[in-house]
Design brief:
Elements lengths: L13 H24 L2 E5 L5 E4 L3 H19 L15 E10 L5 E7 L6 H13 L3 E3 L17 E9 L2 E8 L10 E3 L1 H18 L3 E10 L5 H4 L9 E9 L3
Parallel strand pairs: 7-10
Antiparallel strand pairs: 1-2, 3-4, 3-9, 5-8, 6-7, 9-10
């Protein structure tokens, strides 16, 4: 019976081991510095506005001047591993839709995002909810507004916050709004999206009309951990977009 003699592989030279280890450490360090130097946030500042926080200066300098242009960019490994899901939401938001029959009675209430839906459906519903929160400030009115000859006075939508916890979407002639008071309104995209979704739900559930109510709560600022909560920090505000009729 023939026996084959197997020779043990030669060990790697110590120099190759050292260079390989040095390359691995340098590679991981360059990726780590890229992630460390990336901006985080946005975080709510003392003025109430969200702002990003820059990474450590040494990590930013090494990344921008050395590792990113000469090593990571040729390898196409420039992602800093900061994703949208790592950033705290500015608003906690959901909305509910009240479906009504011809007599105006509520036949069903739908909550979006649906807590009983699977993760993927809730994720898409959450995107829809945040798209309904794109409020805009009305531009300051300067001189008195006059209607063009032969035309009606221009009208504007605005959030009526007479009841601070229940906002009502109202439409008035522009000259009736006080010029010294700031107002907010939903964006045109938000209104169109709300109408399209209500139209879809009315058709799907055979409802005569639908009413959309947005619930949102601003993010509690970090300094409240030290200064203590203030009035309104944990208030959930309701914004009534009004009623949409299927036959409109």
């Amino acid at each position: 019976m023939n026996s084959t003699h197997t020779q043990a592989p030669l060990p790697l030279p110590g120099m190759i081991k050292a260079l390989g280890s040095l390359f691995a450490v340098g590679h991981l360090a360059s990726i780590g510095l890229l992630a460390l130097g990336a901006a985080s946030g946005p975080w709510l500042m003392a003025n109430g506005q969200p702002s990003p926080a820059e990474g450590p200066d040494f990590a930013v300098r090494i990344t921008m001047k050395a590792t990113e242009p000469y090593y990571l960019r040729p390898l196409r490994m420039t992602h800093n591993y900061h994703f949208e899901t790592n950033r705290p939401a500015v608003l906690g938001i959901f909305f509910e839709v009240k479906l009504k029959d011809q007599a105006g009675e509520v036949i069903q209430t739908i909550t979006i995002p649906d807590p009983k839906a699977n993760f993927w459906v809730r994720h898409r519903q959450g995107i829809l909810a945040h798209l309904l929160a794109q409020d805009q400030a009305l531009p300051r009115r300067g001189t008195e507004v006059l209607a063009p000859k032969g035309q009606e006075m221009p009208k504007v939508d605005f959030w009526d916050k007479t009841d601070m916890e229940n906002w009502q979407l109202k439409t008035v002639e522009e000259h009736l709004l006080p010029r010294e008071v700031p107002f907010e309104r939903p964006s045109e995209e938000s209104k169109k999206l709300a109408q399209a979704y209500l139209r879809h739900l009315c058709r799907k559930h055979n409802a005569a009309s639908a009413e959309l109510i947005r619930h949102h709560q601003p993010q509690v600022r970090p300094e409240r951990l030290l200064l203590g909560p203030q009035a309104g920090d944990f208030t959930i505000y309701k914004s009534h977009f009004g009623e949409f009729r299927r036959d409109d």
